[in-house]
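haha ok so turns out i had the wrong file open the whole time. this is the CORRECT one, sorry everyone. sequence first:
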Amino acid sequence: MKLTLDVWRQTSGADTGEFVTYIVDDAAAEMPLPELLDRLNAQLVEEGEDPIAFDTDCREGICGTCGITVDGIPHGPEPHTPMCRQHLRSFSDGAHIRLEPFRSSAFPVVRDLVVDRSAMDRVVASGGFVSVDAGTAPDADTRQIPFDMAERALDFSACIGCGACIAACPNGSSHLFTGSLLTHLATLPQGKPERGRRARGVVESAEEEFGPCSVYGECAEVCPAGIPLSAISAVNREAARAAVRRNRDD
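then structure:
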């Protein structure tokens, strides 16, 4: 199949950048988008041009590293699917496809399709963890967790931290990402001792790095992990709980 690609090219964060049009005439329907970019880069190298910079790692739909915007949709047209699992069968032969980086003020462009998502790392560092004693792991039966509790925690811990929710939000809000982080750690007993401190740190950091949530809902529609929109309610709920219990033992 033959495809026309408008690809965002930007040499650095200081450059203005622009779309450049390329044609790939030997694409196949079973190709995922990263493989299409590999094919295009091989073509560019043969022609003596600079290859397109893009992030990629596992290519198994697990890590979210590859995230870009495809025809205005974070990751691509297939719902709840990361970019590396978006196949060309979603496009018709002769299609015109626009590829650009995640668009958010919190994600400055580094080069071409690569953005800096360190803002999400700073949110995690502010409280997205549990503090446990190092050493021998306790017996698995020492602390029993009810099935429903474990399932709820697993549902929200499925977030892969790709940033698609932030790129899709008109406000650049991180509430889906932040809410899933707070929910799964607050659900499990291992996360309860630091629950209040975590909420204060994570919410404060998120407010500094990202925009406010207006419940548009675009975030949940593009999330490759299928995190439900209900996750966003955890941000205000955990923040309110932490404020009420500020002078108590968290």
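The first helix runs from residue 33 to 46.
again sry for the mixup
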